[in-house]
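G.,

No rush on this.
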Amino acid sequence: MKLNRNIKIFINYFLGPLLFVWLSWSIYREIKRQPDLGNAWRRIRESFHSPLLWNGVAVIGLMVVNWSIEAYKWKISIRQIQRVHFLKAFKAVLSGLSFSVSTPNRIGEYLGRLIYMDEGNRLKTISITIVGSISQLIITLLMGCIGLFILRSDIEAGHLVSSLWLKVVLYGVIAVGLILTLFYFRLSWLIRWVDRLPGSNRFAYLVQALEDFDATLLLRLLSLSLLRFIVFIVQYYLLFRLFDVSITWWQSFWAVSVSFLVLAAIPSFAILELVQRGYVTKTIVGLYSTNIAGIGLATAGIWLINLIIPAIIGSLLILSIKKIYTNKNEET
């Protein structure tokens, strides 16, 4: 069913500006809620006179790398149903972010990406996008599990969790990771299960595109997800250095990996993640550094640079969408 003119006008001239205004107001409120805001701004101003200022510039550059990798992941994932050029995939990813910040666990990002697809292909891309998210989750579970194993002595010594519960969590993560990985490499099982459902003919097309996901493509998605994960870690370490958080690269890598694992298990709204991210990161990275303010600033910087700024750009990009559907597939 084609979108009528009124809905196109709504998306082009109302939804984009509304998202931009809402995001701006939400960011302002979230920042105002932070404790010791005056001291935080003082530390930020001091960082502009630091010889490590280029660390901040590098983090912004890595933000572009991060979302470029995600755009490429999505591009190669959907190529069996529609070929899109990289720039369009990049815009779709940023627009998805603008929707995701106001939905639980960022499920709104699917809607933002769908508006860049051609008629007839939009719903098909949902299952494909979910597979890309699963690949990122598998890497998060894997690296977080390794981090728990490596830092287990420090975690126990810091009384963050008892030895018994640490083992329970560790084995639980391993179990979930194995089940998820098995499901990831056996997508054909999902297709067979859908085919057996009563009345499945009406919605079987939503998962049929997964038949084209061979092991090579799935491994590529995992490799790109691992690369994104490493980019995240590097960004954190650069901001830790900028804000004078005394922590080694090794400690930073695994402490942040464990933080990501914890955050992945907590339901949240992206716009409200700053409080959760701050608490979790301060708790785990705080095992190695007493500069709690610096850890908080680094976490807030990642939240702002990696999520909020791209989401605002994505809300503005929606304004540039002049035609929602097109009858001609774009070539790479």
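When you get to it, here's the other one too:
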Amino acid sequence: MRYLEFEKPLREIESKIEQLEVYAYSRDIDLSGEIQPLKEKLSSLLDEIFTHLTPWQRVQLARHPDRPYCLDYLQYIADDFIELHGDRTFRDDQAIIAGFCRIGNYSVAIIGHQKGKDTDENIRRNFGMPHPEGFRKARRIMETAARFHIPIITFIDSPGAFPGIQAEERGQHEAIAKNLEIMSQLGVPIICIVTGEGGSGGALAIGVGNRVLILENGYYAVCTPEACAAIILRDRTKAASISGSMRIVSSDLKNLGLVDEIIPEPLGGAHRNPEETAQNVKNAIIRHLDDLSILSPDELIADRYKRFRDMGVFYEAQSVGISIANETTGQ
């Protein structure tokens, strides 16, 4: 396991436990008297660290290199997954996974960002940053799902759409905008789950759903904390200090009404028990599909439209103008 800076106090204890367990097994002796106190100390330290996380620490957990990605979740919760490739225009973008499977009793379409587990895979998958062809592949699968009345599940985990010149030349902005348009009009249930990073248009391009869920240590933002610090403070190294003001972690997003449910993670983060995390995700998917499956196509579209229209607070410009004028004149 790889450790973040604030996780390092756990490393020494876990290493000692592992060494003792290996030694006890190899010698066929009982060392439970030595191991149990260490496990109790570890449990106490986990509780101390992970029940008082700062927003920046949650952002770091969302990016943890051992965190489960889309294919990991499918391994635990999906049956008969068939991956489909290509956008029928340019090429297959491996930063986006797409296909069909069964989750519980439901046949569903799956679309998700996919990062790599090592350097070679990260390069192949472009660190989870899709090109336009990735979003066009996603749109092709979504339109196919709608044609056959199949619900759509998306897994969001990307720092953002790829900002390179090649992506712009192939219409990155148009591909994202088209996905927003298409997703708003599909007459099937759409459930979007932020499993790690929910970065800007790269996340929103597969994030227009009837229900938007987020894992406990995920985040959803217009831009990364580093980009925000560079723009606002002219210093990207101040990302940690500005992340709290951005209101981008799960609890803030729930309070603001931008997500519908926070899916709990095991103590220590999803990477410490991917199977338990995946089961929590599966339970949430099935529960929301049960609620949405009774709605007609028109009702699903109206429900999705209302969800996004209800975000934020708006004032009529004319009313504000009259109020200011009255205060100025004393009337």
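Residues 324-331 have pLDDT under 50 and may be disordered. The first strand starts at residue 79 and ends at 83.

Enjoy the weekend,
O.
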